[in-house]
């Protein structure tokens, strides 16, 4: 239903293809499953959304990896926290803004045709 609602709306499709795997990765602590699951839904219908499937997949992959980096359940966050003796929440607060800015930059660059 979500994919059908995004047909003909490339801006919204790009935003959702970045945000959905990002949120799933934050919740799960992994980046692979959210990226693959979103790509399975969005990439086959990319043409109907007036988007390049490779670019759409790239946005989904980056969104999921950014989300994993912000996840308290991610092994990378747990290990970094342990090694640096800094609480995971503190590490996540430090990376959240740069990741959000990076994600927004990728989506804007895609919309402008720069990527």
Which key terms come to mind for this protein?
mainly alpha
| Intertermini distance | 28 Å
- Overall average pLDDT: 89
Please give the number of β-strands. 0
- How many independent structural domains? 1
Question: Would you kindly provide a written description of the structure presented here, covering whatever features stand out?
Answer:
This protein is mainly alpha-helical and about 120 residues long. Helix content is about 75%, strand content about 0%. The chain has one domain (about 1-110). The chain has six helices and no strands. The model has no long low-confidence stretch (mean pLDDT about 90).
Condensed summary:
The chain is mainly α and 115 residues long. The protein is built from six helices and no strands.
Task: Give the helix/strand layout.
Layout: H1 2-6, H2 10-28, H3 32-42, H4 53-69, H5 75-84, H6 88-111
Helix pairs in contact: 2-3, 2-4, 2-6, 3-4, 4-6
